[in-house]
Write a structure and sequence with these properties.
Oligomer: single chain
Strand content: under 5%
Number of domains: 2
Structural class: mainly alpha
Order of helices and strands: HHHHHHHHH
């Protein structure tokens, strides 16, 4: 987003473009793919459903966490996937970071789960 803004495409203009192509329930990634490659935007719900097909790689506790992350993503958009949002998401789900680490393991493992899982959202159409 910073690079796009620096190149003359601020977030408010991209959000307006997102509205113009009726892609409010899609990611900015999809808006850019629409512009560059004429690909139809994919709904966040569709991306989340496809990503859930990879849940078998995770244990039950990780799946519960990732399901919560995907719910937040579908509801609020791709900003929920930013690494700096992880502490907020953990507090929403588990109330405290120590409670989250009891459930999911150390912070490094939680971060790897959170970031690593995202490849399934954008791994291809």
């Amino acid at each position: 987003m910073e690079e796009l803004s620096e190149k003359g495409f601020p977030a408010n203009q991209l959000a307006e473009l997102q509205r113009l192509i009726d892609a409010e329930r899609s990611d900015l990634f999809d808006v850019l793919a629409y512009i560059a490659f004429s690909q139809e935007p994919q709904l966040r719900e569709q991306r989340a459903l496809a990503a859930r097909s990879h849940f078998a790689q995770y244990d039950d506790r990780q799946r519960a966490f990732l399901d919560f992350v995907l719910q937040q993503y579908v509801k609020s958009g791709g900003d929920e996937l930013q690494p700096e949002k992880l502490p907020i998401i953990l507090q929403l789900k588990y109330k405290t970071i120590p409670d989250a680490t009891k459930e999911l393991g150390d912070v490094a493992r939680i971060r790897e789960t959170f970031v690593g899982f995202q490849r399934w959202l954008y791994g291809g159409r």
